[in-house]
Write a structure and sequence with these properties.
Two copies of one chain form a homodimer. Chain A is α/β, with parallel strands linked by helices. Helices cover 39% and strands 17% of the residues of chain A. In chain A, strands 2-1-3-4-5-12-14 form a seven-stranded mixed beta sheet, with helices on both faces. The structure holds a DNA duplex (30 and 30 nucleotides).
Amino acid sequence: MPVTIRDVARASGVHISTVSRTFSAPHLVNPETRVRVLACAEDLGYRPNRAARALITGRTHNIGLIIADIANPFFPPLIKAAESQARHRDYHVFVADTNEDAAAEEELVHALAKQVDGVLLCSPRMSNSLIEQLSREVPLVVVNRQLAGLPCVLMDVGQGARSAIEHLAGLGHREIALLGGPRGSWTSREIRRAASAAARAAGADLTVLGPNPPTETGGFAQADPVRRAGVTAVLAYNDLMAIGLLEGLDALGVRVPQEISVVGVDDISLSRLTRPKLTTVATPTAAAGRTAVDMLLQQDTDVPRTARGGGAGVAVGVRRTTAQVMLQTELVIRDSTGPGPYAGRERPGTAAAGPGPHRRADPGNPIVAAGDVVAS
Amino acid sequence: MPVTIRDVARASGVHISTVSRTFSAPHLVNPETRVRVLACAEDLGYRPNRAARALITGRTHNIGLIIADIANPFFPPLIKAAESQARHRDYHVFVADTNEDAAAEEELVHALAKQVDGVLLCSPRMSNSLIEQLSREVPLVVVNRQLAGLPCVLMDVGQGARSAIEHLAGLGHREIALLGGPRGSWTSREIRRAASAAARAAGADLTVLGPNPPTETGGFAQADPVRRAGVTAVLAYNDLMAIGLLEGLDALGVRVPQEISVVGVDDISLSRLTRPKLTTVATPTAAAGRTAVDMLLQQDTDVPRTARGGGAGVAVGVRRTTAQVMLQTELVIRDSTGPGPYAGRERPGTAAAGPGPHRRADPGNPIVAAGDVVAS
DNA sequence: GATCTCTCTGCAAACCTTTGCATTGAAGTA
DNA sequence: TACTTCAATGCAAAGGTTTGCAGAGAGATC
C-alpha cells in the first residue's frame, strides 16, 4: 500500500538507484530524467522511508530530547525552540519526560540511542560519570550542566544569582535566605555558590534552606521556615518555587515586598502575572534550545557514521566538538523586591547605589566560553 | 561499533533467528538457550534496532503528537500524559509544533507518516476534509475536534460554557461578552454555540468579540472593546485570553469582579495565581492525552500491518475503531466572578438560585458517547 | 577511424531484523 | 524396530533504501 522507491522507478521507467539519486544526489542524474522522476514521485505521493534510509546511511535524522518535567513551565519554551530549530534542519524530535528521575534518564538514552543521531539532555539529574559513559553510546549535548569533554549549553545563573544578591543588598537587606533546588542539579549548586560569594562580598548573611523539589509546592512548604529564619529577603532556585513561596507567605499574612522580598530564577511567563509581580533572573531558555540543537547537529555532520566507507584501510578520524556555550542571564526587577531594614545606609565595601540590573546581550549570539576539537 | 543481533548470535553460538525469537517469541526457544542468549545480550548491551524491525513488521512503535503551540500552557499537561502513557506501552513519541498553522499540520502528518504507527492531532486547524484525507495515509486520533468516522477525544466545553453562562446569569449578569478563539477551532465554535443557547435560555444578551488569537495578547487587546461593549461579564475562549483580559482591564482601571466578571476555559495552572484568582471551566487535558493514546494504540493493535501475511489470498479485514470519547468539564469558581447588576432579583424562566457548578465525574473514566467498528 | 573522456544509468550488495518453511533429533507409540 | 509427533533450531527471503563499481553510449581528440 505505501508507495516505495520501486513504484516510482516503475512509473518513470528507470532503475531504483536512479530514483534514489534523484533525491540524494541530484547532480548525478540527467536533468530530463530528474524532472520525470520527480513528477512521478509527486504524482504517486512518494516520500522516502527514513527508517530504511537510516539502516544504510547510519543517520536517522531524528534527535531525542530528554526533559525532567514537561509540565514545568521552564521547559516548554526550550522544547519549542529546539523542535523548531531541528525541523528547520529536517530533523524530527522525540520528546521524553523523566519525571525528575535519574534512572529514567539512563533508560531513555539507551532506548533512544539506536533511533536518533543524538540526544539533548536537559537539566539532567544523573551523575557526571554516567553521562560520560552514555555519551560513548550516542552523541550527547547537555543543557544546564557543566561537564568537561562534552558539549554543554549553560545559562549563567551564577551571574544571575550574584546580580540578585547585589540587588537585594543594595536595597538594604542583610539577612537573606536561599531556597535550594533539587539534589543533583548543577544549576542549584551554581546558584548557591555564587549567592554565597556575593552575600559575603556584600556583608550579608545567607541562610540556605533545602534541597527542595523545584515546584510550587516545594516553595509553599518553605514559607513558614522562611519566616522563622528571620530573613528579610529570599532568593529561590526557580520561579515556580518563588511563586509557591509567595502564596505561602500570603497565607501566613506576610506582606511582599514590605516585610519580605522575593526573587526567583527563570522568568517563566507566569512571573509577570503574580501579585506582586515577581522579580527574577531571566534565563534564555529558547536560545538554549536552539543552540543545543545546533551544537548537536554540528557534531553530527562532522562525524561520518557509515562503517562501510573509504578506500583500503583509510581510518576516518572521528571528530567531536566539545564546545561549551555560556548564555547570559538578566535580572528583571518587578514588584516583589523592596527596601530592606538597612535601606539608604551607607555600607563600606559595596557600591553604595547598588549595581544596576545586569543587561543581557543579544541572546541570539551566545558567547563561546571554551571550544575545542578532539580527535580520537 | 553498535552491537547487532549478529554479535549476540556469535557470542552465544546460535543462529540469528534464534536470538530474534528469544526477544520476540521466547516460548519458541529452549529455556537453556534462552538464558544463554539473554546473558550474552545483556553482556554486550544489545538493544534491538527498532527501525530495522519496523522495516519488516510494519510497526515502528512510535507515535506522533502534533501540537498547535507547545508554549501554550494548555498543552504541556496533555503532552506529558500522552508521552507517559505511550511509554508505558513501549512507544516513543515524536512531538511537533505547528505554530497554529494548518499547512504545517498537513506537512507534518506526511513527514511523520512513515515513521509512526499513528498520529495524535491536537486541536487541529485544518479542514475536516483534509483530516479525513490524511487519515487514509496514517491512523489518526483527533483531540478537540469532532469528525464523523474518525476516533476523537473531545472535552465537553459546551457543557462547560453552559455552566459558566448559567453561573454568570445566576449572579445577576444580563449583558455578557464572549471572547472567541481562533478561526478553525472546533472548541471555539462549540463554546459559542453553547454559550448562545445558554444565554438565550437565561434571558441574557451575548456579544461575541472575535475571532482572536488564543493568547494573552489576544485577550489584552480586547479589554477596551469589552469595556465599550457595556457588558458586566465576559467568558473567554481560554484562560490565556482571560488572563490577558484581566491585565488589560487592570490597566484601564476596571475592577474585577466588582465592575466586570471574567470566566476562562481550561484551568491552566496559572489560573490559581492571578489576582483575582480566575473562575474557569476546567478541561481534563491529562485524561485527554492518555485516552487519545489508548485509542490510537488500540486501533493500532487491531490492524495487521504486514502485507506479506496469510495463506493464499486470505484478505484480512482492516478494522478501524471510530469511537468518540467525550470528557466532562467542571466549572471552578474562584474570585474573578461576582454579583452583577441584577443580583438577587427573581427572574422568570431561570432557576432562581442559579445552578451550582457542574461537578466533573471521575476524569479517569471517560464516557463513550459513540463507538463502532467499520470493516473496509 | 581509433582511442579516450565523460556523463548517465544499471547492477547488486549491504544495513538489521523477522518469519515461513525445512531440517534435525529425541521422545513416544504400535 | 519402524513409525509418528513434537520441540528446537537453522536457512533464506523480504522489507526500502544507498552506493561502489561497471557498462553504455556520446562526444572530443588525434
